[in-house]
Write a structure and sequence with these properties.
Molybdopterin biosynthesis moea protein, domain 2; 3 domains; alpha+beta; Hypothetical protein af1432; single chain; 378 residues
């Protein structure tokens, strides 16, 4: 199967995955196997759906891994929704988040970790998490999935360093759970930001930006009564800190920023720039990856970026790409050690060719190795 933007829907295309616009468990708007028509190209974006998975000859047998099982997806949706609602109520009452809500977040973090431990490196696609309802809700879940996968790779290969400076490989699951809780609620403090600032469809003024920058500490205050691990709190408080000292709220530098927050910073920015928001459109995955790459050492921890690049490839499997020679194709496979040279399927005559393409080449230059051809039916 392959992913296409809704504007490219044509008469008779076969839907490869359900289109869901409500919470997990509700009936899909469209079910797998439905034959699409061009009117869906107009109607689906109005329902908040920007792209759909289709099944055709070009995408046949391309396997795209879903990051979460349906059961975990439903649990994540329910618990994170409840947590945001409870945080709003706590904010109105001047109270903290109830411990029962934090306990539920811990359970869902365990479920996330359990699912994500089974996902191979470089198999990540966040597109199927795009149906979580509000932006803050959807963003939190996607950041949690991405941050946990990057941390899993880092800790499984290189371990983690304790407060005595010792390299360790134990308590792996416990650390992932604590990180997961922090990632799920990393932006909870935005509930304290006035809606006219949070949802402003234009660049914020300096005064409005000052208000926005209060959200990490507001989040810590909301969660103070919940007796969270200091590791979890570091995610909420410090995910906007930057190695070069330009971040906020405390302008921390380098290793003064806890590793948990360094994972969160990369996941937060990547998802923010690749998601459609009220004040900006989404960039393509390869642009998001480039933003993270170029920020290594100044905006983001170099070690975290190294592991991020092995988990998040610039040209994900199943996505459409435009080759340097102008042809369009779909990514069939990616080598994590050479992510800028994906294997791409392209129409060729009455068949399909698979070519390995150097996507760093300038336009009109195609560096490709011919692969196998298959015949189209008819």
């Amino acid at each position: 199967m392959r992913l296409i933007p809704c504007r490219k829907i044509r008469e008779g295309m076969e839907l490869a995955r359900d289109v869901v616009t409500g919470p997990p468990g509700t009936a899909p708007l469209l079910r797998t196997g439905v034959l699409l028509s061009e009117r869906y190209a107009r109607a689906l974006p109005q329902a908040g759906i920007g792209s759909v998975w289709i099944e055709d000859e070009l995408g046949r047998d391309i396997d795209v891994v879903e990051p979460l099982t349906p059961e975990t997806r439903a649990q994540v949706h329910r618990v994170t929704s409840d947590a945001l609602d409870a945080a709003r109520t706590a904010l109105e009452r001047g109270a903290g988040l109830p411990e029962s809500v934090v306990a539920s977040l811990a359970e869902v973090a365990d479920a996330l970790v359990g699912d994500l431990l089974e996902i191979p490196d470089a198999a990540l696609t966040l597109e199927d998490l795009g149906t979580f309802d509000a932006y803050t809700h959807r963003h939190s879940v996607r950041v949690a999935v991405l941050g946990l996968l990057v941390a899993r790779r880092a800790w499984s290969r290189e371990g983690w360093t304790d407060y005595r400076g010792r390299r360790r490989y134990d308590r792996f699951g416990d650390r992932l759970r604590k990180l997961g809780i922090g990632l799920l609620v990393h932006d909870v403090g935005k509930l304290a930001v006035p809606p006219e600032v949070l949802n402003k469809p234009a660049r914020l003024t300096d005064e409005e930006m000052d208000v926005m920058r209060t959200h990490p500490e507001a989040g810590v205050e909301l969660l103070r009564a919940a007796d969270l691990s200091p590791l979890t709190i570091s995610v909420i408080r410090d995910h906007h800190e930057r190695p070069d000292g330009t971040g906020y709220p405390n302008r921390l530098q380098g290793r003064a920023i806890h590793e948990f927050a360094r994972f969160a910073a990369v996941a937060d920015v990547y998802d923010a720039v690749t998601s459609k928001r009220v004040y900006s459109g989404a960039v393509q995955p390869h642009v998001g990856v480039r933003i993270i790459r170029e920020g290594a050492g100044s905006q983001f921890c170099t070690d975290v970026v190294r592991h991020f690049r092995a988990v998040v490839v610039p040209y994900p499997v199943g996505h459409e790409v435009v080759l340097p020679d102008g042809r369009s194709g779909v990514v069939a496979a990616v080598d994590p050690l050479d992510p800028d040279r994906p294997l791409v399927r392209v129409p060729q005559g009455r068949g399909i060719a698979e070519v390995k393409v150097d996507m760093t080449e300038p336009p009109a230059v195609l560096a490709a190795d011919p692969g196998r051809r298959t015949s189209l039916p008819g």
